Amino acid sequence: MDGAEDDGGTDEAVETRSDVVDTARHGERLDRVLVSIAGEFSRSHLQHLIELGHVRLDGQPAATASRRVKAGQRVELELVPTDESRAFRPQPMALAILYEDEHLLVLDKPAGLVVHPAPGNWSGTLLNGLLAHHEAAATLPRAGIVHRLDKDTSGVMMVGKSLPAVTALVRDIAARDVHRRYLALAHGAVASQRIDAPIGRDPVSRVRMAVVASGKPARTDVECLAQHEGVSALRCTLHTGRTHQIRVHLASRGHALVADAVYGGRPALGMARQALHAVRLELEHPVTRAPLSFGCPPPDDFSTAWRAIAGVTIPLD
Where in the sequence does UniProt note compositional bias of the Acidic residues kind (predicted)? Predict the structure, then answer.
């Protein structure tokens, strides 16, 4: 049937998981309870299973993800194979590791690597590589991924390797105790400034975000380090972590990133992908609470373009 959702048919085994709601979770949304049962999958995927009728409360189909559960109710979840569940498979890949211990992994993500499986990219993602890198990843929400870099953004990112670490990292990000800085090349003469503008889905394009009044609060500090031939070399500090935040904030001011076609950027300086690199990550270790700081030199394409605008020195702080 045209447009029908692939639920895996009947030729693949269906795993069923169940749990009884305890008093601590009384009154929680059903989809949040499902995350505790099958945390390796996204909440949107679990919500979709509810819509397809694969979740039951006390033996009866649960109609909505927002339904509040009661202590003592039995929750049953059928993990019917779908594209997303099939994507949760280990695939060995080389990881550029900057730091690793039993709780934390910090790596240099190359441009072109998708972080999490999604339509059009169900394999070959960082998540697949993490599942192959260490066995515990299969037991963690999103294999320990607590933040993302866009496919064509390069640079430093962190991953939790244990549930206590993932929990602490998510908490620290929400509390804005994790500090992230980026280098960017943008069209035009960009003034140093703080951009404080809410970001939400673009009302016209499904692939874009935009500055919209109904969006979530977003703040970016922009420092212009050099300008040459209509391009500005920038250091950007995130105070929030919205999807496409730097790209959207700069484009909203008329300064799209070089080669960022989604937001109106034009190819220049040999860049074939958006000119954005995550250069610095500062945090407290999620378990020991020791301060950690990581600098990550940009790849050759970005380095060459940066030097054409700002000279030889590339700041890593």
Answer: 1-13
